[in-house]
Fold each of these.
Amino acid sequence: MSGLGATHFLQVISCVRDQHRPEMVLLAMLACGLAAGKAMSLMPLAVSARGATRRRQQRGWCLLAGLMLGFGGWAAHFITILGYDSGYVAGYSLTMTAASLAVGVVGSQVALWFAVRSRSLVGRASAALMLSAGLAAMHYTGMAALRVPALLRWDWHLVAASVLLPVMLLHPALYIALRARRNLQVFAATVLVSSAVLVLHFTGTAALSFIPSHISSDRGISVPQEALAAWLSVASLVIMTVSAFAHQLRERSHAARQLGERQFSMLVKGTSDYAICMLDRSARVAQWNAGGLSLIGYDEDEAMGLPFARFFTDEDRAAGRPALAIAEAEANGIAKGQWLCVRRDGSHFWAHGTVEILCDEDGVVIGYSLITRDITEIKRAQDALAAKTDQMDTALEHMSQGLCLFDAEERLVFANRAFYAIWNIPEDRCQPGTTLSQLAYAGFFSTEYRPAETLDMIRKSVARAQASGGNPTWNLDFSEDLVLAVSERPVPGGGWIATFEDITRQRRSEAKIAHMAMHDALTGLPNRARFYLGLDEMIAQGAQTGEKVAVVAIDLDRFKEINDTFGHASGDRLLRTLAERFILTRRDGESIARLGGDEFAAAVRFTRRSELNDFIARIQGCITAPVPAPFDDGGQPLLVGASLGIAVCPQHGTTRETLLNNADLAMYRAKATLGEAVCFFEAGMDESARERRQLANDLRQAAARGELSLLYQPQRSLRTGTLAGYEALLRWHHPRRGLVPPDEFIPIAEETGEIIPLGEWVLRQACAEARTWPGEEKVAVNLSAVQFLQPDLVEMVRAILLETGLPARRLELEITETAIIHDKLRALHCLRGIKAMGVSVAIDDFGTGYSSLNTLPSFPFDKIKIDKSFLLKSEASAQARAIIRAVLALGRSLDIPVLAEGIETEGQLRVLEAEGCDEGQGYYFGRPARAPSLEGAEAAEGG
Ligand code: C2E
Ligand code: CA
Ligand code: CA
């Protein structure tokens, strides 16, 4: 079999020209065209069906279109067959004719459905082939319906061509129809489809030739030609009706869609919050909504054709941002971003823009949608928030407190710089996410932080904080060099914020202040407050254990003198040395404190008396050991003694106050009693203290009440035996107590200051009385050290001499060393003032003071009075005799006469005479008496 050739072509041409009636062909084309046109017009509806019922709609449109096309093709076929002049046709098989219609309709429906569903090139080609095959099946079934008295012979080449050639028309037809928007496209598709039907028909018909025969091909029901014509008329009517119906459906759907689109377009166009526009392929504005006007300032006319880049700032344009957005949309389908958008008037606003690619049904890019929103306010708020966050970050970073945030799983969320510094953790080893126990155990906390304990304490504190809802501060006390104040505050959703503050320095200064508050600055010994606390504790403990507690009051003897003689630095050195010794000697259960000045106190718990004795011996040892002079200073070592008073709990009292008071009383007793450095409290001591106070009170009124009087004791020259003068000695006749000795009340008067008026009274009285004496004897008046400190002393003496009329040469003032060593310069000045008046000055009680031999040469004394204690001991003590001899030698060398006090016996007198003493005073010569004229007579004291 040869291929398709010119013969076949001629065969087809002749079939059209010779075997068909032209008017029937035209009619067939009309019927076919009408049906195909309607079918094609339904295809875009099927394609553009949307929504949930999309499948159903598509199926509906395809069934309807297939029905139209099938009917149209079938009608066209039979109309041409009616005009087909084969010369043989006798009738038509009813079944085959009907089958032909059914095949045509179903084939078309299936093919169109397939075309709508798969719109790729291959899909479309397959659909075209299916459609062609369906129509061909219809055609050949229709041919098979012919009742002819002949044998049919087929040219298979043309049969194949009849199926394949229409494909070439149907393929573009479907392509156009599926995306047809305008009637012209529908029309074009219709022409192509109709042509395909005709090509199929003519080629298929030309493929057939008849070989005359008498054998009829079919025996079934036969339809005559006239009936077929009637059928076709009915079919045409059906086509018209269905067509009209389809048309209506199509119009309605179209209208509905257009309304929807119009409404949607109105919505988009009317939206003013968002600038929504369509960009064409070259990114120029193609559609523009109201938002575009209100946001960017262009109305629709102005905006049309503007390049997308126009809405960007110059900088963004230079940086290529518009092109980048388009490129990104191309690549990802969508591009989002924020940029500074430029309005028509040149002003700017922050915009959030979305550029989305727009494609047609075939995925071909047709442009872009651009949706822009003004986010200036949001941006401003964001910026403000960011700035605030920045500030907060800065604040957190610069806090002196370490701050960190842990989440509910104990994971570190945040930590500031101080946190790392305080814990001494390198920042890179403790990033967010590190757990609390990792922090503790991975060695971040150095060993001194004791990880396990620390971790435990932190967890407990967090639990407490969470339970209570508060954030109590507590201390992590690692060592003296590290104390942290820690506070945890739970945060919503679990987790907590912890702060750490290094309070080591604060702690140290607190400790220092606490130490200072409880210790003496000079010696470092506990002070009064600390001593009292300790004593209270001891008393309480003693009460429980049955132990006794001794309180020891310690007062240094003659400390004041040391201070005055050697200076305060030496005094301080002495106190410090004693304190150092106390600290060294102190044992458990003992305390020694400095209460002030040269006053110390000690306390001890003991059970046996020997323990207390040992303690006291140790304290005395500390005090009496000489304090050597400073290394580089060749000065003499300092020697000091002390008076100790002891009160024992419970027998002498059970409270701190009474014990201290009683120890003091015992100490005063020790001080007052010569040769007794330690005294225990005895009942009655407090009695004597009370008496002392009473005495001081009484003394104040003594002069006014006339209870005071003066006695005079004679002073004789040992060389000539003549009377040299009298010493005035004060007497107090107390109305209740009787005679009170001056040794008892003078110290009280000195303490209370009463000595000033008292001393003035004595001086005036002595001068006045001496003025009345018959002889010219001197009167010696004792001057207390306190009086000597009075600035107007010289004036007072001058005034009394003037007042009484006693010549200055008859007055002698007796002062002790203590009066001059306080302020030697002032003392010297004062002495000169007194002597300038002609009054003489004697130094009293010489030899008992600390510095006698040192100070004497620098003061212009007129007489040295050796203290009576030396004379009283002179017969028994060689030392006393040596001192007397030394003083006499001193007097001779300084050319100052020496008077010996306390001569009671002839023997004493002989010794003094032998040693060359100048003057003497004592009971041997006469006791203090009322008046010199009555010396040795009735008024003599005690005698
Ligand atoms: P004083 O100045 O050393 O006075 C001498 C004291 O020795 C007197 O004691 C006197 O009675 C006593 N006395 C005299 N001869 C003997 C003797 O042979 N044997 C003994 N054992 N004692 C003798 P008095 O009067 O009791 O005075 C004691 C102290 O009171 C005085 O010591 C003096 O320091 C002070 N005093 C007395 N009157 C006054 C006064 O008017 N003003 C001041 N500031 N002090 C006075
Ligand atoms: Ca005297
Ligand atoms: Ca004396």
Amino acid sequence: MFDIQQIREDFPILKRTVNGKPLVYFDNAATSQKPQVVIDALVDYYSNYNANIHRGVHTLSQEATNAYEEARKKIQVHFNAAKLYEIIFTSGTTHGINLVATGYSSLLKKGDEFIVSALEHHSNIVPWQMLCERTGATLKVIPINEHGELIFSEYEKLLSNKTKLVFVNHISNTLGTINPIKEIIDKAHAVGANVLIDGAQACPHLKPDIQQLDVDFYVGSAHKMCGPTGIGFLYGKEELLNLLPPYQGGGEMIKEVTFEKTTYADLPHKFEAGTPNIADAIAFGVAIDYLNELGFENIASYENELLQYATKKLLNIDGLKIYGTSKNKTSVISFNIENIHPYDIGAIIDKLGVAVRTGHHCTQPIMDFYKIPGTVRASFAFYNTKEEIDIFVEALKKAKIMLS
Ligand code: 7TS
């Protein structure tokens, strides 16, 4: 196992205090903290080889181009994509989904259907609704049970030869449910449909194998994986990416431009118009190296220990109810305490140094399902500790007394 105190030394922010108390950061599902190596990579780029890429013959430009393309390679290897050019840099998960959703408008025919799950983040709902409005396609929803698990038999009923694309998250950001994506993908393929997996919450906790999953599109954000904000990736199968039109027009994404006709660059450049986010892409590669050095099996097993420990302690608090009780879940706990608004809990425990998210977590359909306005959400990362969970539980008890 890894040395947790040593790991915490890698994260400068964990040394700070909030409202005079040591920071307890349990909002990792919103964004993760950054290790020094990632911060250093950004400073190194801007201090030593900042240049625009793919266009200069000069040394700096070549160094920056090499580092940017090396980062793409790291992502390809990490996720086991078959081809380097199947990895497209995006600004994050939201961008990746919008790129695919916008592109699909040119591939649809009358009567086409999409299948979405009731567990999705708004960013995997709204772009598709916008697409349906533009094209007349319809959206079908896989329902969930009380545990916050997809009802697979209902999914099977929704599938038909009209199904064009299924889009589901790998892990729910609100409930932590790990979805059976391999089974979802196989069933969709059996009727000729494609699948997009929103991996925003999965990538920090596990290592998806794109070829083994045979997934058609997979998207994620670096900032949830100890990398910087403003960078993410879209994986797409070559033949599908070739079918999609470019998302944005501009420099770098063309082969030839005349006023009569423009032809587009090959993958991946067709989808990377303009000067990309060079520094953050490079630092994303460094974050992936960092996580792999720790090892995803170590990360998952330690985070599961934290999850079990916290779940047990929280359930000892009278009137506390946890939403999302699937056996197959990651280190996210959403809960409410009877008769107390989640926001009030969040505000009081912040005074005690504890950072959690409160509200609907951009998943209003989940809140509607449970008939609640929101939850308190604590999400743990591998740099959190059981001692921090103890502080959190004591803070909750204090909040409960103050608010009852
Ligand atoms: N999909 C899922 C499952 C997410 O959890 C998020 C962000 C997104 C998509 C969007 O990612 P972005 O990087 O493009 O913003 N989730 C959260 C959250 O749970 N709290 O803050 C952001």
